[in-house]
Amino acid sequence: MENLKSKSIIMKQFTIVLRLTAILLLCASYIQTNAQQPKTNTYQALLQLCKELRLLERTNLPNGVPDYRSATIIKTQQTLLQYKNRLQKIDTAGWMLEQKVDYVLLRAEMNALDYNCRILKPWVRDPAFYAIIFGEQSDTPDHEGPTSFAAIELWNYNFPLSTDDVKKLTAHLKIIPPLYEQAKINLTGNASDLWSAGIEDIKGQVELLDELAKKTSNDGDELKKAIVNAKRAALKFITWLEKELPKKNGPSGIGKENYTWHLRNVMMIPFSWEEEVTLLRRELNRAYYSLQLEREHNKNLPQLKAFSTPEEFTAGTDAAVKQLMNFLKQKEILPVKDYMEPALRKHIGAFIPEDKRNFFANISFRAPGVLYSHSTHWFEIARLKEEPHPDIIRRVALPYNMWMQRSEGLATFMEETFMHAGLWDDNPRARELVWIMLAQRCARGLASLYAQANMINYEEARKFQVEWTPKGWTGDESLVGFEQHLYLRQPGYGTSYVTGKYFMERLVMDMGVKENNHLNLYHFFDTFYATGILPLSLVRWEMTGDDGEIKNRTIK
């Protein structure tokens, strides 16, 4: 027994020595680099640094498998310190405003990688991080939540597959078995809710592989073998996760202090956890208050009727798309491009039986245009391809979900903006749905805040969201589980809809004041879209010239 205790003490001391050694190496790397790097003031140096930074986490083993081992992450942190020093050595004096914005953006991106390595650590805490097969395209610039760079985008393939695509998909699928073996070593975290919910995500991978096998039954033995091996590996991984689950009893939230650090240093907004709680409580009150007033105003009008047949759905959604696009053109709300309507129509979806409809289907089956106001997401996704930003740094989606408040906040802002601009003047009952949508966003955002603070767990967050969503609208609760799991995986995502909307409203106020309270929405959106998909504080700086939100943030 004494020998066991002695061994335990020795192991603990050895672990402490390893950690101290890693810290000393990081510090030495920083000091050495700080002494060696000369001052530079070229924008080209920033572009080169951006290129290197975005390759930093994309580390592969010789067999092409992503490398998330602890030793590799330590090396990534060492290199990141060198990159941060190189950034500090860049002098932006004399640069154009857009270039200065890019400089601050790159600093925030470095903070995001630092945050991922120090705090979030999805490769250690989050089994769902290893779910790399995706059957559908996200309506946001990139995948929602922490995602491996080895993602397999099945939605990007055309079936039946071409010869080249068969080879490409086969090679990608061969990554899965060794990746899952590595995951069993990497996943040492104790986040109980992330672990249990993540198991369901890996089970979803098995379903996607089964569907893929059916689609590719005539595409050769090598692809078939790769699918079989990937499925076998996934099933073994699930068995291992379920075996380890009883040992997991720790919290899954990152805590208030880490949450605030992410808001201020990655998302670049001058808010804290507490301030987001205050904002979302206020918006929840406003949503319910406005809903009651709308219902009072409409009490003599018939209720909205949901589509009950596929034919009604097809006709109704077609009419809603036409109505929205005509409204945007005729009212000159924003610049309407030829690619926008096709992008929206591509994602209308299909008829869903009443008993299987979730919250958003309950909305869209009554007034599709309410949801399509939010689905202007697809305008931006198409814009990334059709009108790529001239700035290399802004040309692709920012990593680490740094776009979430800009993207989700804008889409939520559109719902209320279009309503106030007159979209529902001829259908007042639809206005009620706008407030119901806002209430639901506040409910799920507040739940996510409390879960990140470890005040409630994942199941309690789900119940909170259902309780504070207007009665009768939640529908199929599997969506609730998906949402709260995502918001637990990616702190700040659940609130981004409402917080982002707030900063959009503030930007409209600023631009309105700048234009003597005669804001032209068309001009506003034209200028806004031209900045690219950036954190909203940087958009505000570029559009107004006011960098107060950047300078006045309290960095902790």
Radius of gyration: 25 Å
Major beta sheet, strand line-up? 1-2
Mean pLDDT value: 93
What's the β-strand tally?
2
N-end to C-end Cα span: 46 Å
H and E order:
HHHHHEEHHHHHHHHHHHHHHHHHHH
Unreliable runs, pLDDT <50, ≥5 residues?
Answer: 1-18, 20-25, 27-36
Range of helix content: 55-70%
How many distinct helices? 24
Largest sheet: 2 strands, parallel
* Shape, principal axes of CA atoms: globular
Domains counted in the coordinates: how many? 3
How large a portion of the residues is in β-strands, by DSSP E? under 5%
Overall SS class: mainly alpha
Describe the protein.
The chain is built from 24 helices and 2 strands. Strands 1-2 form a two-stranded parallel sheet. It folds into 3 domains: 2-124, no CATH class; 130-247, no CATH class; 278-551, no CATH class. With 556 residues, it is mostly helical.
